[in-house]
Specification:
Layout lengths: L4 E4 L9 H10 L4 E7 L11 H10 L3 E7 L7 H7 L3 E5 L6 H10 L3 E6 L17 E5 L14 H14 L5 E5 L7 H7 L3 E4 L1 H4 L4 H10 L4
Helix pairs in contact: 2-3
Bound molecules: D-xylitol-5-phosphate and zinc ion.
The site of zinc ion has 6 residues, from strand 2.
Length: 220
């Protein structure tokens, strides 16, 4: 069995058929369902809000992996928990009191993640690493699906993986942005263990096939 997890991003789905898209993911080899929330302020795009997130979570049988690209995320954590999030990730750059925010997410019974933008050094997370369940390393500038993977991210993955190993921590390393069959193996080799894929999955005529192939990388 593969050790890594696949978290398809619903951002790239056909929103007119969202129920069917979630059903498709439920039947696939996906492990998590990545839900991107954008506020038009932290990122230059607006995606979906609470009612849609709630509908997706109700239909999903996967781990609901909510990625908040919003300012003042602490104001909305409990609402996304109520909407059905199993894990909530907030951006380091959007949060003044990162440590407090992590504690608040965990108090709700959710897994806690911090996401960092491509320009943010991964070392900035080292003092809260033991409190985290996951780190999302953005490998594109957040805001849009279908962008090109920034290859410098591989070095950040390696740095974070080394730190996690040397401190014997249990933190998932999730890579978000521009991930597809062409680069997934390199990303996993660098030390990632969760792959987010939006465009690579939903622009393919066989989305379940892409998810299966991503999941099978490295499996003998
Ligand atoms: C980008 C989002 C990503 C995005 C990934 O701002 O956080 O989750 O949907 O999409 P792809 O895989 O198309 O880059
Ligand atoms: Zn995301």
């Amino acid at each position: 069995m593969a050790n890594h997890l696949i978290s398809p991003s619903i951002l790239s789905c056909n929103f007119l058929e969202i129920g069917r898209e979630v059903d498709m993911l439920n039947e696939s080899d996906a492990d998590w369902l990545h839900i991107d929330v954008m506020d038009g302020s932290f990122v230059p795009n607006i995606s979906i809000g609470l009612p849609v997130v709630e509908a997706i979570c109700k239909r999903s049988k996967l781990v609901n992996d909510v990625h908040l690209m919003i300012v003042n995320p602490e104001k909305y954590i409990s609402l996304f928990h109520k909407a059905g999030a199993h894990q909530i990730s907030v951006h380091y750059e959007a949060c003044t009191h990162v440590h407090r925010c992590i504690q608040e997410i965990k108090l709700l019974g959710c897994k806690a993640g911090i996401a960092i933008n491509p320009h943010t050094p991964v070392e900035l997370l080292f003092d809260v690493l033991e409190d985290l369940d996951l780190v999302i390393l953005m490998s594109v500038n957040p805001g849009f699906g279908g962008q090109k993977f920034i290859y410098r991210s591989l070095q950040k993955i390696e740095k974070l993986r080394n730190e996690v190993i040397s401190r014997n921590l249990n933190v998932r390393i999730e890579i978000d942005g521009g991930v597809g069959l062409q680069n997934a193996e390199k990303i996993l080799q660098a030390g990632a263990d969760v792959l987010v894929a939006g465009n690579a999955v939903f622009s393919d005529p066989d989305p379940k096939g892409v998810i299966r192939r991503l999941k099978m990388i490295g499996v003998q």
